[in-house]
C-alpha cells in the first residue's frame, strides 16, 4: 500500500485555515472532531469512529491523585492547549500525562503534543526509519519537498508524479472523488508516461547545474513597508545602481516623500509613486548563496487583493511583513486588517513556507518584548491557519534603515538579544518545492501584451509539465490551437521551460482578442477540462452574511476573476473529518465546511484538485472580503 | 402610466384602460398581463382583399383588435412588449379566431380585461400610475479591463453596454503599452456614456470601481471633454458621483446602492428599499437562523402560524403560467397582509430581485423563531 499519498495531502489541509478557537463554544467542543486524528487511521477506519467516547472513561484515574490546585492548573492547561490547537487529537489522559510531565508549562506541553501527533502520523505508515521531518530546510541543491529527507527523495518523486498521488482525498475523500478519478486518470498516466522519462532527464540536464529558482511573494497589511523593505534589500544586494538610487532620493525628496525612496525601486508607475502605495505586483530578482530568487511584491491595499492573488498564485514561498510600530500591528492584524487575510490566502493558494519580517522595529527602539509579543500572537494564528511551526521563521528588521537585511545587525540594542539569521539567510534557507515536470503541460495566463517581433506574448507560470519552442498549444476555454514561436524567462530566450517557471510565450496563429487573462495554455493531447459548473469542497471563513443557495460571489481561479453563483448547497461537512453533518443545508455560516455546486457565468478552464492542485484551487470573494477557499471535486459538463 | 378607465365588479371581473408613457410602463404591463387575458389595442394588420375580378391586393390597415393572450414576450433592452393570441372580436378585416400579434406602443391606450383581478394586479396598476417619479440613475461600474453602463429606474436595472478590454500589466520598459490600452479602454467608456445616458432624464451618474480606477477615469474623461470641447459632459459635470465598489461586476450594484451617499439621493426608490430588505433577511439568517426562511414550503408553513413579519417575493412568481400556482401566491400575499405583515414585491430586473430569484424567489423574516421548520425539513429529506 502506498502510504506516501497520505502524507502528501498533509500540507493542503483546508480545515486548518481558520481560527479554530473562537467559533466553538466550550459546550460543544467535545463534538468537534479533529482532522489530525483522521489522518492517522487506515482509510476504512475513517468511517467508524469510536475512540472519542472511550477516552472519557479512564480520564479521572490519572487526575484523581492530584491536589485541587494542580487539578485547576491542569484544567486551565488543557483549555489553553485546546484553544491553540483546536479540537484535540489525542486522548485526554495522554494529554494529562504530557502536561504533568512538562510541569504545567503550556508552551512546552503544546510542543510535546505536536511532536507526539507527528509521531503518531508516521507510525502506522511503516516508513518510520526513512522519514525525517526537516525542520527548517537543508541547504541542498536537489529538490527537497514537503519535509522529506534526501534519502527519501527519489522515491517520492516517482510516487508524486502520478496524478493520483496528488490527491487530496487521502484523509477525507468523499466517494465522489474516488469515483471520478478511476477511468480518466488511467489513460492520462499512460499518455504522460511516454515522454516522462526524457522530460525528467531533460530537466536535470537543463537545470541540474544552475542555482535553484525560487519565487517569493511579499505580503502584508497596507503600509507595513513591503516595497521599502524589498527595495532596500535589492539596493544592498547591488541590484540597483547608486546613480538610480540617488535619482530616486532626489526625486522623492522633491515631492516630500523621502521615506518612499526605496519603495520606488519596485513601484515604478507615476500613479503608484504619487499615492505611495503598490497597486500591481512588482517584480524583481536577486541571488542568494544557493538560490536565484524572483521577488513578487504584492499590493497590500484591500482593493488590490485580486492582483495580490494572481501574484501569490505564482509563488513558492511567502514573506509576511508586519509593522511593529505600536498600534500599526494591531490595526493590520486584528479583524479587518490584511495581515490575516493575506496569510490565509497564501496558505489556501498552496504556500507552505513562510518567513515573517517584523519590520520597523527601530521605531520601538528594537524592543525584545515587542518582537516576542508580536511573534507570539502571529505564531498562534499561523498555526491555526495551517502553517507548520517549523516552516515559519521570524526575523526582526527595519526596511528603512536596512538593519538585519543582508548583513548581521550592527545596532547594539538588537545585538543584545538577537543572534539569529538575517533576512537574506532566511530566504536562502527556504526549500524549493518539487516541480511536477512530467505532468501534462499547463500554463495559466496572467498577462497579455504585444512583444517586439511578430505575434503577441502571454506570460504566466508554468503550473505543470514543460514546453518547447515550436510545440502546439491549445488555449482553453476557447479551445483554439496556436504555435509557440519563442519562450522567455526574465527576458532571456529559452528553448524549453519547465513547471514552476515564470515564462513569457510568444504565440502565433491566433488573434490577440481571442485570448484573455485567466485562460489556460495546455497540451492539445491532454487538454484541460472546460466547464461552467463544478462541485467543490469549500471552507467558509468569516462572513457577515451567510451563504445561501443562489449566493452570488466572485470566483478567483488563478488569475481569472469571474462572477459566479453558488447554485446548490449539497451537504455540510464536519470540518475535520469530512463526514456529512447535514444534507441540503439551508445556509452556510461562519467557519463551516461544505460541498457545494458552483455555476460560473461562462465556461472556464479548470481541473480536479486530485489531478492538478494548482488548477483545482479557487477562492470566493464577496464585497472585497474573501469568504471561502475551495477545492474542485467534480466537474459537471 | 395613465389610468383612463377602470371598471371592475365585485367578483373581480372587469377591465382597465391604460396608456403607457415611458419604457418602464411596459415592464409594468408585462407584469400585469397574463395568459388568457383579453387585450384590446389599436394595431396594424396586413389585409388581403380580393376584387370582383379576382385579383388580390394586400394593404396594411390600422384597426382595433381584441385578442385572448397566449404568449407574452418582453424585450428588456428595447422595452418592447409583444402579445400573441386569437382574435375574439370580429371586425371587417379580421375574422374570429385568427391569430394576431400585438405590439404595445407608447402613448397609445390599451384595454386589459381579466376574468379575475387579484390584489397583486390591482396594486401593480396603482403603482404603475403613481405619478411621483423617483430619481433616474445611471451607473458605470468598472475595474481595470471591464466596465458596465447600467440604467436604474424604480423597477428596472438595465445593462446598456458592457465594455471589456485586456490591459497588459505594467512591466519594466513596457509602461506605454499599459497606458495606451488604458486610454483606449477609457475612450470606449466615454463613448458608451455619451451614447447610452440621456442627461436630460438622468439626474445622477454613479462611477463605481475598486481602487483608484474611478478617479483616474473621471480625471481622464474631463480632460478629454475639455480637449474635445464636449459640451454635454462639461455641462453635466455636477451629476457625476464617485463611489467605491469592491469589483467591476454587475452585482456590485448592491454595494453601491447601499452607499450612504447614494442612499441619500435615491432613498425613495424601490431599488434601494429592496436591497435593504434583502440585507435584513441575510443578517437575520446569520444571527437568528430560526427567524429567516426561504422556499415556498417553509414560507407557507410559517404563514400558517401567522409568523411572517416581512415577506419578500419576486414578481417573477406572479408571471407563472399556471393559474392555480399564481392564485396560491396571491393568497399567500393577502394572508400575510391580513395578519399585519409587510409584503415586498421585488422586481426581478433589479440585482436584489435577481438574487432573490436564485433563492427560490420567496423568503420571509419571521416575528418569532420557528426552529421546528428546520427540523421538519430534515426529517423529510431523510425520507
UniProtKB/TrEMBL annotation, chain A:
Cellular localisation: Cytoplasm
Family listed: Belongs to the TRAFAC class translation factor GTPase superfamily. Classic translation factor GTPase family. EF-Tu/EF-1A subfamily.
High-level lineage: Eukaryota, Metazoa, Ecdysozoa, Arthropoda, Hexapoda
Biased composition (Polar residues): 154-169
Catalytic function, reaction form: GTP + H2O = GDP + phosphate + H(+)
Domain Tr-type G: 211-437
Main location: cytoplasm
SUPFAM superfamilies: EF-Tu/eEF-1alpha/eIF2-gamma C-terminal domain (SSF50465), HBS1-like domain (SSF109732), P-loop containing nucleoside triphosphate hydrolases (SSF52540), Translation proteins (SSF50447)
Keywords of this entry: Cytoplasm, Elongation factor, GTP-binding, Hydrolase, Nucleotide-binding, Phosphoprotein, Protein biosynthesis, Translation regulation
Protein name: Elongation factor 1-alpha 2-like Protein
Entry's Gene Ontology molecular function annotations: GTP binding; GTPase activity; translation elongation factor activity
Region spans: Disordered: 154-187
TrEMBL record, chain B:
eRF1/Pelota-like N-terminal domain mapped to chain residues: 1-130
Key word Metal-binding present: yes
Domain of life: Eukaryota
GO CC entries: cytoplasm
Molecular-function annotations in GO: metal ion binding
This protein's UniProt keywords: Cytoplasm, Metal-binding
Annotated localization: Cytoplasm
GO BP term (any one): ribosome disassembly
Cofactor: a divalent metal cation
Protein role: Component of the Pelota-HBS1L complex, a complex that recognizes stalled ribosomes and triggers the No-Go Decay (NGD) pathway. In the Pelota-HBS1L complex, pelo recognizes ribosomes stalled at the 3' end of an mRNA and engages stalled ribosomes by destabilizing mRNA in the mRNA channel.
Record family assignment: Belongs to the eukaryotic release factor 1 family. Pelota subfamily.
UniProt xrefs under NCBIfam families: pelota (TIGR00111)
Protein name according to UniProt: Protein pelota homolog
Organism field: Tribolium castaneum (Red flour beetle)
Gene that encodes it: AUGUSTUS-3.0.2_01682
